[in-house]
C-alpha cells in the first residue's frame, strides 16, 4: 500500500476516532477535500508549478499518520527555538498535540488559542464557517490533503480596532517518538478591521528521525488591518516541509509574509495573496541560504483584482555545494486592476559549480494603466569586492561572509521585531560559518 492509499483508507477512522462533529461545515469540507486528493494524488513534476520539485523521495517512507507515543518535552528542550528576549503569546505543539504546559494563550483582547477548540465550540462557529478553508487552493492536492485531516493548529482571531500587544509565536515540534512521521498542522488567522498582529511560525524536529510536515495557513486581513507574518525554516537534514500559506486582503489592508529558509531536506513554500479591494499593499520577502543537498522551492502568486493596489516581492538566495533553489513567482493583474504598482525581484548567488537555481518570474497583465516590473539575477560573488576587502586587512572568510550578509541584508531589514532581526542575523552567520563580529 503506497502513501496515498494509506491516507485515503485512514480517513474514515480519523473522523470517527477523532470525536469530530460530523454535522458541521468542517466535516463537509473534509469530505470534499479527501475526494479531491483521492482523485489527484500527490503533485508530480508533470504539473508546471512542480516542474523543479519532486516529492517522490519523500513518499517512499512508511509514515506514522497519528503518532501516539509521547516523549517528554520540557522548556529546557525547546528554549533555544523560542524568542525569549520579549514577552509573547506562545502556542507550542508537540507531535501534533497542543502543549498547554509550554504555551501562553489569551482570550482577553483577542483569541490566541488552538484550532480544535474553535472547530468544536459554538462560540466560534460563525468565524469558522465564514473563514475556514475559504482561500486554501482547491487545485493544490497537497493542501486538500491537509484540509481532509485538519484537527489541530493555531487559531488567532483579532476583533476590530485591536492592536495585539505581544507577538504571537507558533512552534511545532517533532520529538522522533516515531521513526517516520507525517504531521499536518492547520492555522487560521482572522484579523479584524483596523487591527494589527505580528506572528512568528516555526517547525522544528528535535531528533534525527524522518519527518514530513504538510502545513496550511489561511490569513484574512480585513479593512485597514496590518499583518506581519514571519516563517523560520531551519530544520534538520531529515526534515521536510510543504507549507501552503494563503492570504486574503480587504480594502486598505497591509500584509507581509517574510520567509527565512536555512535548513531542512526539502522545503516547498506555496504563498498566495488575493487582493479583494482597493488601496491594498502586499509584501512578500524571503532569503534562502542552503548547502549540502538541500532543496527549497518558493512558489508565489499575487492576484491583483482591484485598482490602486500595490505588491512588492523580493527573494534572495545563496546556494553552496549541491543545493537547489527554485523561485516561481507569478503576478496577475486583472482587467479592472488599473493603477496597479507591482514589483518582483529574485536575486541569487551560486557559490559552487554543483549548486542550482531555477528561477521563473512571471507577469500576467490584463490592464493597461499599470506600473509593473520583474527581474532575476544569477551570479557569483564579486571577486573585485572580495579582493578589495582583503586588501584592507579583512581575512578572506570574514570578507566573503560580510559580502554575502550584505547581499541579503535588505530582506533582513524588513523585519519589524528587533529581537527577531537579531535572531535571523545569527542564523545567517551560523549558516555562513563565521562570526560577523557585530549585532543588530
Describe, in plain words, how this protein is organized in 3D.
The protein has 440 residues and is an alpha/beta fold. It folds into two domains: 3-276, no CATH class; 382-440, no CATH class. Helix content is 22%, strand content 38%. The protein is built from nine helices and 20 strands. The strands form two sheets. The chain has a ten-stranded mixed β-sheet, covered by helices on one side. Strands 3, 4, 6, 7, 9, 11, 13, 15, 17 and 19 form a ten-stranded mixed β-sheet that branches. A hairpin with a 2-residue loop joins β1 and β2 (97-98). α2 (25-40) packs across α6 (141-148) and α7 (383-391) packs across α8. The termini are far apart. The model has no long low-confidence stretch (mean pLDDT 93).
What's the topology here?
Blueprint: H1 3-17, H2 25-40, H3 75-78, E1 89-94, E2 97-98, E3 111-114, H4 115-120, H5 125-131, H6 141-148, E4 154-158, E5 168-174, E6 180-183, E7 186-191, E8 196-205, E9 210-221, E10 226-234, E11 239-249, E12 254-263, E13 266-275, E14 281-290, E15 295-304, E16 310-319, E17 324-333, E18 341-350, E19 356-365, E20 371-379, H7 383-391, H8 396-412, H9 418-431
Parallel strand pairs: 1-5, 4-7, 5-8, 6-9, 7-9, 8-10, 9-11, 10-12, 11-13, 12-14, 13-15, 14-16, 15-17, 16-18, 17-19, 18-20
Antiparallel strand pairs: 1-2, 3-4
Amino acid at each position: 500500500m503506497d502513501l496515498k492509499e494509506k491516507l485515503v483508507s485512514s480517513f474514515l477512522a480519523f473522523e470517527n476516532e477523532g470525536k469530530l462533529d460530523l454535522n458541521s461545515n468542517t466535516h463537509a469540507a473534509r469530505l470534499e477535500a479527501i475526494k479531491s486528493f483521492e482523485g489527484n494524488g500527490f503533485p508530480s513534476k508533470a504539473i508546471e508549478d512542480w516542474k523543479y520539485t519532486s516529492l517522490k523521495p519523500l513518499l517512499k517512507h512508511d509514515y506514522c499518520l497519528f503518532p501516539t507515543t509521547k516523549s517528554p518535552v520540557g522548556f529546557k528542550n525547546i528554549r533555544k527555538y523560542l524568542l525569549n528576549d520579549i514577552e509573547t503569546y506562545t502556542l507550542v505543539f508537540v507531535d501534533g498535540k497542543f502543549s498547554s504546559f509550554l504555551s501562553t494563550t489569551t482570550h482577553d483582547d483577542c483569541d490566541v488559542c488552538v484550532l480544535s477548540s474553535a472547530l468544536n465550540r459554538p462560540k466560534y462557529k460563525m468565524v469558522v464557517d465564514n473563514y475556514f478553508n475559504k482561500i486554501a487552493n482547491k487545485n493544490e492536492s497537497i493542501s486538500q490533503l491537509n484540509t481532509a485531516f485538519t484537527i489541530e493548529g493555531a487559531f488567532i482571531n483579532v476583533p476590530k480596532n485591536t492592536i495585539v500587544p505581544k507577538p504571537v509565536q507558533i512552534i511545532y515540534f517533532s520529538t522522533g517518538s516515531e521513526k517516520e512521521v507525517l504531521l499536518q498542522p492547520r492555522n487560521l488567522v482572522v484579523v479584524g478591521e483596523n487591527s494589527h498582529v505580528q506572528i512568528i511560525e516555526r517547525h522544528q524536529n528535535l531528533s534525527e528521525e524522518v519527518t514530513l510536515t504538510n502545513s496550511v495557513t489561511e490569513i484574512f486581513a480585513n479593512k485597514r488591518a496590518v499583518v506581519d507574518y514571519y516563517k523560520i525554516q531551519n530544520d534538520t537534514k531529515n526534515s521536510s516541509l510543504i507549507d501552503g500559506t494563503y492570504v486574503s486582503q480587504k480594502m486598505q489592508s497591509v500584509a507581509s509574509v517574510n520567509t527565512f529558509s536555512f535548513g531542512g531536506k526539502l522545503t516547498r513554500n506555496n504563498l498566495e495573496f488575493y487582493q479583494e479591494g482597493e488601496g491594498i499593499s502586499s509584501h512578500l520577502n524571503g532569503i534562502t541560504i542552503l548547502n549540502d543537498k538541500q532543496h527549497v522551492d518558493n512558489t508565489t502568486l499575487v492576484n491583483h483584482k482591484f485598482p490602486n493596489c500595490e505588491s512588492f516581492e523580493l527573494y534572495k538566495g545563496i546556494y553552496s555545494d549541491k543545493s537547489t533553489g527554485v523561485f516561481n513567482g507569478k503576478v496577475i493583474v486583472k482587467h479592472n486592476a488599473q493603477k496597479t504598482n507591482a514589483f518582483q525581484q529574485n536575486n541569487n548567488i551560486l557559490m559552487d559549480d554543483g549548486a542550482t537555481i531555477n528561477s521563473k518570474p512571471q507577469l500576467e497583465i490584463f490592464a493597461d494603466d499599470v506600473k509593473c516590473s520583474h527581474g532575476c539575477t544569477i551570479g557569483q560573488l564579486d571577486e573585485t569586492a572580495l579582493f578589495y576587502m582583503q586588501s584592507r586587512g579583512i581575512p578572506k572568510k570574514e570578507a566573503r561572509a560580510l559580502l554575502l550578509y550584505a547581499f541579503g541584508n535588505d530582506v533582513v531589514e524588513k523585519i519589524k521585531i528587533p529581537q527577531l532581526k537579531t535572531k535571523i542575523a545569527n542564523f545567517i552567520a551560523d549558516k555562513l560559518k563565521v562570526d560577523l563580529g557585530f549585532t543588530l
